[in-house]
Amino acid sequence: MGKDDSDSKLYYSRHVFCCTNERPTGDPRGCCADKEAIKLRTYLKNQAKKAGLEDVRINAAGCLDRCELGPTMVIYPEGVWYSYRSREDLDEILRVHLIGGGRVERLVLRPEDVPLKATD
């Protein structure tokens, strides 16, 4: 009778969630906000707009639960996770993933990636 939801056109071709979560000072997990996540997310949003990516949404997100590896982002519908540190990293994600459809392998976070443990 009705059209199946899985056949619906996506409202955005890609949806980027950038963690901007802030934890209390001294939290052992750290937080993305302390690693310039808010400024970097704003930079990516502006660069995507300059590139004319009107069907890509760059959103601030609360905790994505990979705090120690942050700042982090996840891009849907692909479900690809990235850890990034700089504008250059974001420029590469924009160019290779959001525009080109590829992956920036050096920045990809996989489920098995865990923070490095400090050694005694």
Q: Can you count the beta strands?
A: 5
Strand order of the largest sheet: 2-1-3-4-5
Radius of gyration: 16 Å
Q: Order of SSEs, N→C?
A: EHEEEHE
Gross geometry: globular
Quaternary? single chain
Task: Supply the helix-strand structural class.
Answer: alpha+beta
What is the arithmetic mean of pLDDT? 90
Sequence stretches where pLDDT stays below 50 over 5 or more residues: none
Number of helices: 2
Residue share in β-strands: 15-25%
The span between the termini is: 65 Å
**Major sheet: size, sense and barrel closure?**
5 strands, mixed
CATH class descriptor name of the domain at 17-83 and 98-109: Alpha Beta
Short description:
The chain is of the alpha+beta class. The protein is built from two helices and five strands, in the order βαβββαβ.
Describe this structure in words.
The protein is of the alpha+beta class and about 120 residues long. It has a domain at about 15-85 and about 100-110: Glutaredoxin. It is built from 2 helices and 5 strands; from the N terminus they run E-H-E-E-E-H-E. Strands 2-1-3-4-5 form a 5-stranded mixed β-sheet, with helices on one face. Strand 3 and strand 4 (about 80-85) form a beta hairpin. It is globular and about 45 Å long. About 25% of the residues are buried.
Keywords:
120 residues; alpha+beta; globular; 5-stranded mixed β-sheet
